[in-house]
Amino acid sequence: MKIVFAGTPEFAAVALQALHEAGFEIALVLTQPDRPAGRGMQLQPSAVKQYAVAHGMEVLQPLSLRTDSKDPVRAEQARATHERLLSTPYEVMVVAAYGLILPLSTLDIKPCLNIHGSLLPRWRGAAPIHRAIEAGDSETGITIMQMEEGLDTGPMLLTEKIAIGPHDTTGTVHDRLAALGGTMIVEALQRMKHGTLEAVVQPEQGVNYAAKISKEEAALDFGLSAVELDRKIRAFNPFPGAHGTVNGVVVKLWAAQLAEGRGAPGQVLTADADGIVVACGTGALRLTMLQKPGGKRLPAAEFIKGFALAGQSFA
């Protein structure tokens, strides 16, 4: 079975590797253009491109797939990509966290299967893992779905659940879902090949949208409950990194635990080797992993050696 693969980050690269190692022929890879990254802001290829190039796969990096784009460069790239897809012999397109909208003209060429990191119809959209943790969901999973023009609205082909533990972060859940997605897309294509893959229409009830994460959300409001703040810290780890401000200094908060204590929201109640206990709107949080600008992530016991917090407050 010949495949066109469309994806960009590590989540997608794991799936591409699984398909390649399972023996599927990758006829073409689509991924987003190289982006500046790191301290030097040098152009860096996506995780998908890195894997594809290392294994001799042809890669295209259009800015858009919409031939009706008002930007002439984007429109021309989209037309060229569309013609390339039409001239490429393949049986199915697999999409995983590609980051570009697939227009109907692309979806109509061949069947398109998407690896989505939630249990649809809950958390359709761009940030399903973050939003599941932020909302306090006890489980999530992977849905392999047939793509259609709507946002993650297509029929479901395979689903599998995993638990979200009380200490899970977006990073830990991402890694488990990426591995699961790779396993499931291989199974889905094997079933498709043998005619045993069945589609189930998504239920109309239980639809939620996982809006893209903004950096502004990472600034914590200590007027919220400790439970809510703990979820946000875990949801925003590793990106964009939750933070609070102490005496004008932005401090990133990477890990916390629910704690006992009362005080004005944001007030540091204790700061010792066991952690930094901060009062919240309801309850308190014990901060256990922090980072100041230009520094490394440090356990609380090490952090307070170079950053006095006793008697301070987080804004």
Name the helix and strand elements from N-terminus to C-terminus, one letter apiece. EHEEEHEHEHEEHEEHEHEEEEEEH
Rg, Cα atoms, Å: 22 Å
Structural class by helix and strand composition: alpha/beta
By DSSP (H or I, 4+ residues per run), the number of helices equals 8
Poorly predicted runs:
none
Coarse morphology: elongated
Mean pLDDT: 96
CATH topology of the largest domain: Rossmann fold
Q: What does this molecule look like?
A:
The chain is α/β, with parallel strands linked by helices. It has 2 domains: 2-210, Formyl transferase, N-terminal domain (Rossmann fold, 3-Layer(aba) Sandwich), CATH 3.40.50.170; 215-306, Roll (Methionyl-tRNA Fmet Formyltransferase, Chain A, domain 2). It has 8 helices and 17 strands. The chain has helices spanning 10-21, 47-54, 72-87, 104-107, 128-135, 170-193, 226-235, 300-306; strands spanning 2-7, 25-30, 35-37, 42-44, 59-60, 92-96, 112-116, 124-125, 139-146, 156-163, 209-210, 243-246, 249-259, 268-272, 275-279, 284-291, 298-299. A 7-stranded mixed beta sheet has the order 5-2-1-6-7-9-10. Strands 12, 13, 14, 15, 16 and 17 form a 6-stranded antiparallel beta sheet that branches. Helix 1 runs parallel beside helix 2 (47-54) and helix 5 packs antiparallel against helix 7 (226-235). It is elongated and about 70 Å long. The termini are far apart. The model has no long low-confidence stretch (mean pLDDT 96).
